[in-house]
Write a structure and sequence with these properties.
This protein has 272 residues and is α/β, with parallel strands linked by helices. It has helices spanning 3-38, 41-47, 51-79, 86-107, 112-130, 172-182, 192-202, 213-223, 247-258, and strands spanning 139-144, 185-189, 206-211, 228-232. The longest helix is centred in the N-terminal third of the chain and has 36 residues, at 3-38. The chain is elongated, with a radius of gyration of 22 Å. It starts with a helix and ends in a 14-residue tail after the last helix. Mean pLDDT is 83; it is low at 262-272. The structure holds iron/sulfur cluster.
């Protein structure tokens, strides 16, 4: 199976994990809602004879909202298309649903990183449906510092990626070429605080973020409502040192949101 085949397979598996967890969480919420209504049911009738019926209607409305929201999300993810309220749904997933999925996932023995991957995958599908035709100057490629070779003494954090001398020991060289080719901004963050500062200063319309499961998840949450398309790095030398990323996947992401446009008159990759 080729790279795209493997990638497709992982995305499908992450999608299944997310949808499975989502359905399980919905079931738990429905049971909890019914219990919340049923337990004080007897008490309601003491306050007013019609109160049990009124409360039943309120809980029914909440349940319909939960089921409707869950189903819309499932169809959005399965179809990979922008259904109504895509942006709102992304907000609900990021703010409320993900913490719930982590709790339910833990109860059924799913690791946090697997849940994070499923969340990143679902987020990416929603972002793909939402952000199209982004102007290059409004796109930011945000990288973790651990992608820089640990033997390199050039300072490239923040907006200093231009300092890279292009020796080729790490992918910063290729990513700098990519940013020039498409005219998009590129920055390197040492952690969440610097990443937030860069985003606040640049005010991009969308971000292509490269990081590990944990940092991508928090980056997606922190940056909302700005859409973040997450790409996982690989860690052949263990976490946080000399990590790697498939530059073709980053380029595919950039092209998908720019509508496949290359910057006209841009610097050719060979002219680095
Ligand atoms: S490619 Fe750039 S950042 Fe990477 S080791 Fe060489 S000079 Fe340093």
């Amino acid at each position: 199976m080729g790279r795209n085949g493997n990638q497709q397979c992982c995305v499908q598996s992450d999608k299944r994990t997310f949808i499975g967890l989502l359905l399980l969480t919905s079931l738990v919420l429905i049971v909890l809602s019914v219990l919340l209504w049923w337990v004080p049911y007897v008490g309601f009738s003491y306050i007013h004879p019609r109160l049990p019926l009124i409360m039943a209607l309120v809980f029914l409305a909440v349940l319909m909202f939960l089921i409707g929201g869950g189903m819309t999300l499932v169809f959005t993810i399965i179809r990979g298309k922008n259904l109504f309220f895509n942006r709102r749904i992304r907000g609900v997933v990021i703010r409320f649903l993900f913490p719930l999925l982590v709790v339910v996932g833990k109860l059924v023995g799913i690791t946090k990183d697997r849940i994070r991957r499923a969340f990143i995958s679902a987020n990416n599908l929603l972002v793909l449906g939402e952000a199209k035709g982004v102007r290059p100057e409004k796109m930011l490629v945000l990288l973790p510092q651990c992608i820089q070779s640990h033997e390199c003494d050039v300072r490239i954090t923040g907006e200093k990626v231009e300092n890279c001398k292009g020796c080729g020991r790490c992918k910063i060289k290729n990513l700098k070429i990519l940013s020039r080719k498409y005219g998009v901004s590129i920055s390197v963050a040492t952690g969440g605080t610097l990443a937030r500062k860069i985003v606040a200063e640049r005010r991009p319309d969308m971000i292509i973020g490269v990081a590990c499961e944990r940092d991508l998840t928090s980056g997606i949450q922190d940056s909302y409502p700005i859409p973040v398309y997450g790409i996982l790095n690989s860690r052949p030398n263990g976490p946080c040192i000399d990590t790697d990323v498939d530059v073709d996947i980053v380029e595919e992401g950039v092209r998908a949101f720019l509508g496949g446009e290359e910057r006209s008159g841009g610097v050719s990759p060979q002219s680095f």
